[in-house]
Write a structure and sequence with these properties.
This protein is an all-alpha fold. The chain is built from 13 helices and no strands. It folds into 3 domains: 135 residues, no CATH class; 52 residues; 80 residues, no CATH class. α2 crosses α5.
């Protein structure tokens, strides 16, 4: 599907509303990826960045503005879209996987260990589905909108020869419209420069293991109100001591999350440490099974 109109035509031909929803899911996920990329590109100081702060859910509401009765249908389409062979669907699937693990262990949210929403009273069923979509958004590892658009166009232009015929047609249509809108703008010269640039040089990432571990379990920290001490307790169980060198203690870890990764959470500075009784600990262990 190259446009909203294409999606509408498919829906009319097949007597469904899935394709319009799927096209909107693609737009929603593209926006999330763009927002993350823009923060990194335009805010070199990590103190100015903020990730995993509810942006995915806010964006979802902006794209769909769903009334309560729409949540069941949207949820079904969301799950179906996640199973498709599509790069945006793959991003969604990476959020569905930890949500499924969380459900398997806790029984929360929609799944085989919870009553089917359609068997619950209508209001409770919708509330269960809504809470599941919100939680899915929390697992989505999370300026100028024109600038974001041109950055994506520049990347596609560099890799045009690797794109499918259908993707090439979509790119050319998009490019034609964008040029008409911005050919007299400074963004056009920026686009030319970005198009001619080679792939960025790979930079060393000495804290890769630490950063990945923190980002992966951050939704658990937010949901269960972990302190930095509790996060450090979990990380010590997951990582080699050398990986934790930047964060030797809880205050250093709290500072690292905020000032290096742009991850902030109220209560992180708390001295609480629930040890082996830490809620969400079993889920975190499941994510890092050898």
């Amino acid at each position: 599907m190259n446009s909203f109109e294409d999606a509408q035509r498919l829906d009319e031909a097949q007597n469904t509303d899935f394709h319009v929803a799927a096209f909107t899911f693609q737009c929603w996920i593209s926006e999330l990826l763009n927002l993350a990329a823009v923060q990194i590109a335009e805010k070199p100081n990590p103190d100015d960045r903020a990730f995993q702060n509810g942006a995915a859910w806010r964006s979802f509401l902006q794209h769909f503005s769903p009334k309560p009765e729409r949540f069941p249908g949207l949820f079904c389409h969301l799950m179906s879209f996640g199973e498709h062979d599509d790069s945006m669907a793959e991003f969604l699937f990476r959020a569905i996987a930890p949500l499924a693990t969380e459900h398997e262990i806790t029984g929360e949210f929609v799944g085989k260990h919870a009553p089917p929403p359609w068997r619950l009273p209508r209001a409770k069923g919708i509330l269960l589905i809504r809470s599941t979509i919100i939680r899915l958004c929390e697992w989505c590892f999370d300026p100028d909108p024109q600038k974001r658009e041109w950055a994506i166009l520049a990347i596609n232009n560099r890799h045009f020869h690797t794109m499918s015929q259908r993707s090439q047609a979509h790119f050319l249509n998009h490019m034609s419209d964008a040029i008409d809108e911005a050919k007299n703008s400074s963004k056009w010269s920026q686009f030319i420069a970005a198009s001619k640039a080679g792939p960025p040089e790979e930079m060393p990432w000495p804290s890769l293991s630490l950063d990945v571990a923190i980002i992966k379990i951050w939704p658990l920290l937010k949901r269960h109100g972990w302190s930095a001490s509790e996060l450090l307790f979990r990380l010590r169980d997951l990582l080699d001591p050398a990986d934790l060198k930047p964060c030797p203690d809880a205050p250093a870890l709290a500072h690292y999350c905020s000032h290096n990764l742009g991850l902030r959470q109220k209560g992180l500075q708390s001295i609480r440490n629930r040890g082996k009784n830490l809620p969400g600990l079993q889920i975190a262990r499941h994510f890092f099974k050898p």
